[in-house]
Each structure stands twice: as structure tokens, then as C-alpha cells.
Fold:
Amino acid sequence: MRLPIYMDYQATTPVDPRVVESMLPFFTENFGNPASRQHRFGWVTEEAVESARALIARSLGAEPREIIFTSGATESNNLALKGTGEALRQKGNHIVTVQTEHRSVLDPVRKLEKLGFQVTFLEVDEQGILDPDRLRAALTPKTILVSVMFANNEIGTIQDIRSIGTICRENGILFHTDATQAAGKLPIDVQESKVDLLSCSAHKIYGPKGIGALYVRSSNPRVKLAPQMDGGGHERGIRSGTLNVAGIVGFAKAMELSIHSMNEESKRLTVLRDKMLNAVRAQLDDICLNGHPTSRLPNNLNISFLGVEDNALMMSMKDVAVSTGSACSTADPEPSHVLKALRLRPERLHSAIRFSIGRFTTGEEVDYVVARVVESVNTLRKLMPPSRSSRTRVRDEATIGRGI
Ligand SMILES: Cc1ncc(COP(=O)(O)O)c(C=O)c1O
Structure:
């Protein structure tokens, strides 16, 4: 077993060696620009891009022409939100989203707010679930777009995407989902779920960084997007810029591998995750599972260790890579906006650690991390001044996760 142990797979993943291998020829011999229609160098890469596009489309239940390659999910989210906002401005100016979204959704809608849009940020329950009735009640004749993430990057909670899609379709409103943490891990079908726009990214599924996609529905209804990157008219004019061919090929290979092993891998990760939770529970009092106990990504555990500060715990386990919130906000000492949206009491907010496991996580690593966590929590609890360590045992919270 090699140290340090990586348990931050929701921040990013190592590129699978099979993915690297698939990409290599596209840095050297197959370097042509797929937009070069006049010669063989361009034909070869165009063919590689189109077969990657077809594979990604198939994995989502979409048509190849509905896949727009971007630089990642941040760009996909920006394009979906700003692009529909701009295109549908005459129709309405109301957008509905959720308080627990990733910042790459929240920041673009806040920008749209400054431009005159009205945005509703819906609340979730204590386990991070959006009640579809709450969504229905928020819709107005001016609502043009609803954006709800598929699965949460911090607490792993999976939303009822099909019900949300159905409500949007019944009301003639476009539905965007940020599926960055779900694509390649959970079955996705944009037809069944009535999704009109979907964002995903390669680096969460053992592909390279800097490549992602936006699914844009082409019929029933046809989604119109205002491009946010103007130039050579690539990607049907929706996203200009020379295509990242090696990245696209790697993205498709990563998706193919993830889809191929999805059922098996999901079971394996669920076993490891539950083993980890049960072992921590058996050895420590006063811990709470954050997020939903069952409607949850198989690779995510988010646990509050009451009486222990998250950063102190993380620093005391230097040979274990975990996270206290989303990777992009770890420099911010404020508790994460996701945990805050669950309206947990402060002690629980400040003691939460996200463990995210993945393809290369072993049972041995889980055992090691559990031992480190138990040791560190016990040491820190002893060191804490009495006011901080006077924890009240809260049985209902401590038992939330028993079902997983
Ligand atoms: C839910 C979610 N959305 C969007 C992103 C941004 O993805 P990317 O790094 O591809 O821009 C992330 C990654 O941190 C994420 O977890």
C-alpha cells in the first residue's frame, strides 16, 4: 500500500492508463485539425472526434449532434445557463435553481441576476433532497429554465431527476442538470428523464482535465442557445475554438470504461463505503452522516465528527487526502454553502469531512484510513477545551446513515 492515500476522487481522478494510451497518437502522428476538411490529417482527427461524440451521446441516450464539446463542466454550465438566458430573454426572465448547486451554476445565475433576470434559489431538506412540489410551486409564467444538479459533489445526494424533468416538461420549461458527478457512475437517459441540457466532465471519470461536454436537446423541444464563445463556428456555431482532439478521444475512452464497469464498480464502491462508515461508527461516538442515507452516490461519504474541527482533523492525517468541502472552496474558511443549505447546527457544519473513493481504492486503504481517522479524532477530542468537546449525543443524527 502506497502513502499518501487518495480519497478525494470527487475533486478529480487519476487518468486511467488505458485512457492515456488511447490519447497518445493524437499528440503526435494524428495531430491534424478536425476542421481541416481539405486533407487526410484533418479527416483522421475528424473521424476520431465523431466516433467519440457518438459514444458520449450513446452513454446519455442522446444523438451525436446533440453533444457540444467544451473545456469542462464549468464551461458547460456557463453555456447552458447564460446561453439559454440570452436566447430566451424575450420569452421570460425567471430561472429556478437550488441552493446546493456547484458554484459553476450559482455564479452564472448570479451574473444573470445582475443583468435583470430573477432567480429563485430553492431550499433542500436536511439530507439535501429537493422536494418536487417545492419546485412546482416556484414556477411562474416567466420561468424559462430550471437547473438542478443530478448528484451533489459534497454530500453525494442524488436528486429525483425524472420527477423534476417531468414537471419542467409539463410546464414547457427547459431543464438543465449538472451531471458532473453522476455521468459514468449512474445510469443516465436524457429521454426518460426529460432532460434538455446536461453538463459533464472527463476528469471525474478517469479522463483528462480540460475537456467536457454539454448535451443540448435538438428536438421536442429544440433548445436554442446563444453561443458564449464566438469565432470559427465550431460545434455547430455553439462553441467556437479548435477542438481538443486528444482530450475528446480520452473523454470517450474514459466514458466507455466507466459505463462498461458501472454496475460492478458501483457495487464494489458501495461495499467499501459502507464498510468504512460502519467501522467508523463502531469505534467512534458522536458522528453524523451528511447527505441522504440511500439516495446517494456509491463513492461518497460525508461525515461530521462532532467536537473536532474539520481542518484540524484533515491536518492531523497528512497521509490521507480528503476534503472539507468542494475542492474549489477549500481556501475559504467559511463552512461550505452546501452544508449550510442543509441547515445543520454549527458544530456539525465545522466538523465535516468528505471521503470520496474510486476505481483504485482498495479494502486495505479503507482499513488504513479508518484507523487514522479514529486515532486522530480521539486525540483531537482529548485536546479540545471542555467547551468545545461538551458534545451532546444526538441519537437521531447519529443514526441517519444506518441504512446505507
Ligand atoms: C458538480 C460539479 N459541477 C461542476 C464542476 C466543475 O467541473 P470542471 O472541473 O470540469 O469545470 C464540478 C467539479 O468540481 C462538480 O463537481
Remarks:
- The chain has 14 helices and twelve strands.
- The domain at 5-11+262-403 is CATH 3.90.1150.10 (Aspartate Aminotransferase, domain 1).
- The longest strand covers residues 300-305.
